[in-house]
Give the backbone structure.
Amino acid sequence: MKLMSYLAVLMMGLLFGPQVVAGTAADDISILDPYVRAMPPGQPTSLAFMGIMNNSNKDHALRDAEGTVAKKLELHTHILKNGMLHMRKVEKIDLPAGKKVMLQSGGMHVMLIGLKQDLKPGDMVAINLVFEDGSKKKLDVPVRRIMMMMKKQEEMRHDHAMPMKH
């Protein structure tokens, strides 16, 4: 009887051991500096940005994003067409072995569509990243105010006391 138990354990190890040892895509991935853009009250969409580092020697792909803060989350990129930037949904984001892929403004990002609440700086948003093998990486992502507009407005101010550069 002990021999049968031993053989059963040995067979289970041989059958399922390689999958356990190999790990998942989510195990191979590190997320760097994630954040969700704070939006004015009542806005229906926002964006999530981050660096995604593939620490393995195998290519992976981000296939989806999930969360409860919005009706749906989609992977998007920007495409330049006729001098205009257009957002487009993508089916996946390739994550080459040993490389970092940036999800950033003006490029690839996670789009949060149909926000269910206002997003204020300091809030946390739960996002699950889903990879090609179905594995998931759970993130608690901070909401940050983006200072781009404020910076542009500051640059546009005309201060008569300062010499202008032309």
User: Anything to note?
Assistant: Residues 2-22 form the longest helix (21 residues). Helices lie at 2-22, 25-28, 148-156. The two ends are 90 Å apart (CA to CA).
